Amino acid sequence: MSYLPNGVPLPQPTPDDREYWEFIRHRELRIQRCARCGRFRHPPMPCCPSCRSEGTEWARVSGNGEGFSYTIVHYAPHPALKSAVPFNVAVILLEDAGDVRIVSNVIDAAPEEMRIGLPVSLVWEPTEDGGWLPRFRKREGGTA
Question: How many helices (H) and strands (E) does the chain have?
Fold first, then answer.
């Protein structure tokens, strides 16, 4: 079962983030990193904002992190989401990727359980097209 219902538009890769989504399709969370200075960056971009190098590598990360910010959605922004409200949209600070944050959902947290600093870990959710999306679950000790 998916956190959000079928019919929600899936992310459409761009030239800059195509590799990221290809890793996701194979259930690998990899974050772009500068090959020169080592700075992690997300979303993926053609050059490093720190040193301007165009050299990149893709580092596998654990998927552990914590809630950096969140919102509870009460009004469905898409017709397919009407039955899903309220749901959370969370910004997750990954613990082993510098200051990288990714936008996702914490699939096992009720709205009242969401909080900044909530420890989470990566889980993979299947998509309608046979792919995967990174989602998160509360980690041990992660209840509000």
Answer: 1, 8
Residues forming a β-bridge with 32: 41, 58
pLDDT, position 143: 45
- Distance between first and last Cα of the chain: 24
The SS3 assignment for 78 reads coil
Kindly state the greatest CA–CA separation across the chain: 47
Find out whether 47 and 53 touch, Cβ atoms under 8 Å.
Answer: yes
Confidence of residue 140 (pLDDT cuts 50, 70, 90): confident
CB atoms inside a 10 Å sphere around CB 90: 26
> Would you say 86 and 102 are in contact if contact means Cβ atoms under 8 Å apart?
no
Residues 77-99: pLDDT tens digits?
999 999 999 999 999 999 999 99
Which residues does 126 contact at the CB level (< 8 Å), separation at least 6? 2, 132
What is the C-alpha to C-alpha distance for residues 41 and 45, in angstroms, rounded to an integer?
A: 8
